[in-house]
Amino acid sequence: MKIVVIGGSGLVGTKLVDELRKHGHQVVAASPSFGVNTLSGEGLAEALKGASVVVDVSNSPSFEEATALEFFETSTRNLLTYEVAAGVGHHVALSVVGIERLPEYGYFRAKIAQEKLIKGSSIPYSIIRATQFFEFIGRIADEGTEGNTVRLAPALIQPMAADDVASAVASFAVGTPVNGTVEIAGPEQFRLDELVRRDLAALNDRREVISNPHARYFGGELREKTLVPGNDARLGETRFESWLSQPARQIPNTSLQPATGTGRREQLMASSKPMLALALLITITLIITGTLMAEETVTPLMTNDLAGVSGKEVLMYTVDFPAGFSSPVHRHNAQVSVYVLEGTVVMQVRGGKEVTLGPGQSFYENPNDIHVVSRNASSSKPAKFLVFLIHEKGAPLVIPAK
């Protein structure tokens, strides 16, 4: 069947598109970067033509209530209107477990408004409420951070991997509409403070997690079971420890892989041709961490010690993304500025909104940012951007992240 995935370029959307295609369905990945905009209606009629199912896994560009409410109401109204015109027989939407139990959180109120619109439509539907993703734990930590401490309530949470979310949503998408709400969750329950403590430790993040029963969770106070599902929830398979141990991506088969890691790196740093050494160092670093695919091209332009700051250096290089290229989740542990030279790229750090940048536009990330989206917005044209990076001398340029 033809299935349209709204938000098909996001964390869950990309996984969902792959899962559905793997089972032989005709899938349209729909998002503004692919020319489909649910807020303006651009490209919707064409995308929905002949579709049997629409799956909405899109998200608001902000967790702030007014922005989220405008996004979900406008987007959902447009979607449902165009679906009726196209004869779509099943609307599937991804929502969040516990949204009615934390009314202080404006984003949750916006999700309730979205669900109300879906239930009031004439289109058969399935609303899938998921618990928080493992990939969202860092955002929870950031929200509770004050200085170098993270204050969180010891409430229960039952998070799940985005891969399991995509798998569950795919199964509902190809099934009969439930005309109701179902819940999905991870296989284990944790105390929120302990979960974040373990996540930060795995990332070598030195922030201290302090347990406080009255700590606010996005503006609301959690009760013991605010964030956990009921007894009938469908459970994913991925356990937290297994998710933590997963590599960002397997090392690709390439002749540029070093025979030995640290020794080869030291040889390059000592090279009498520093620009060539930098080029190889960047390439090898990206390969080791799984960030570089064979088609990506990194061209170093400059490397210098940062004047007046001991142990810091400045790097400048260009990156060429071929059509359709996308990097896995990573971090730089550095001050990074990106300036787009050619084409269009999509960037997003964890907790921030996804932005699409064209020539002359820039993007910044700080040392604590996790880069969750970095891809060429076009499936037919290349893109090129300039990177200006300040980091510790000798430190890895790219670090895998979850």
Structure description:
This protein is α/β, with parallel strands linked by helices and 402 residues long. The protein has 2 domains: 2-245, Rossmann fold (3-Layer(aba) Sandwich); 261-400, Jelly Rolls (Sandwich), CATH 2.60.120.10. Helices cover 28% and strands 28% of the residues. The strands form 7 sheets. A 7-stranded parallel beta sheet has the order 2-1-3-4-5-9-14, with helices on both faces. Strands 15-16-23-18-21 form a 5-stranded antiparallel beta sheet, with helices on one face. A hairpin with a 5-residue loop joins strand 19 and strand 20. The protein is globular, with a radius of gyration of 22 Å. The chain starts with a strand and ends with a strand.
